[in-house]
Amino acid sequence: MKAAVIVINLDRDTERLAFMREQFERLRVGYERFSALRGDDLPEAMHPYFPPGTPLTPGEIGCYASHLAIMQRVASGALPSPMLVLEDDVALPHDIARTVERLLETLPTAWDIVRLSYPSKRVMQNVAPLGVADLVRYTHVPVSTGGYLISRAGARKFLAPRPRDLPIDQDLRRVWAWRLSTYGVSPPPIRADAFGESSIDAIASRCADAKRKSDERRLRRARETLWRFAHGMREFGAARWLSAEAVNVAARLTPKHARGALLEWAKARLA
């Protein structure tokens, strides 16, 4: 494989590690294991990102910090770039190595991150064919940190020294905040959550849910919507962005059995 591979795994989760090891051996893909961090026992280098009073739960902190720690090593050169980052509950396709090779041959020079593990439920823009899948850009970046490619430049951008108060799967969607040049593969080649809920996230307590329903959170979501809108206008152009947003609204009102066809039609029009 033309990218290095690293797997985030809690020390106690030997079953998940065995699951990943079996896949890598079958696919003849080398990998490195990263011992997942715990939110209640962070190394000092992570403290500025999660100051006292953070609304994140220990599970969310541990998950976020694990990804940040890997990005720190990629950014510094201690780990190679590009890096395929995987959580330990993903199912890999038989051709993952070839998919990554095609990606790296097709991506523009200035890319930061490629999302590989969750389908988008909104309009996408086709960039280039990848055999049975397509390289795409998102009008709404999907959730999931189950599998993604990160470049050294992308890692450095996401390591901006500011406190983190959203779970990483939400923060990585905020591409305008980090100026991340973000791409994806549709349909995504990696299936996340093969075991159900992530064991890193499972430590989280329910108290965070109440905090996220505060007036401050609602105000923030309103601001984020405006920033996302401005980002979309800049990235896609006013006409394309407004057309895509109109389809996104229509898709939310369309029955699920017909939604896919609508989004595929819009993806072709947005290309």
Structural notes for this entry:
There is one protein chain. The relative contact order is 0.16. Helix 2 crosses helix 4 and helix 8 crosses helix 9. About 5% of the residues have low confidence. The chain has one domain: Spore Coat Polysaccharide Biosynthesis Protein SpsA, Chain A (Alpha-Beta Complex). An eight-stranded mixed β-sheet has the order 2-1-3-7-4-8-6-5, with helices on both faces. It has ten helices and eight strands. With 271 residues, the chain is of the alpha/beta class.
Please provide a brief summary of the model:
The protein has 271 residues and is of the alpha/beta class. It is 43% helix and 15% strand.
Strand and helix layout:
Blueprint: E1 4-9, H1 14-27, E2 32-35, H2 58-76, E3 83-87, H3 96-106, E4 113-115, E5 124-130, E6 133-138, E7 147-150, H4 152-158, H5 168-171, H6 175-178, E8 182-186, H7 207-211, H8 215-236, H9 238-253, H10 256-270
Parallel strand pairs: 1-2, 1-3, 4-8
Antiparallel strand pairs: 3-7, 4-7, 5-6, 6-8
Helix pairs in contact: 2-4, 8-9, 9-10
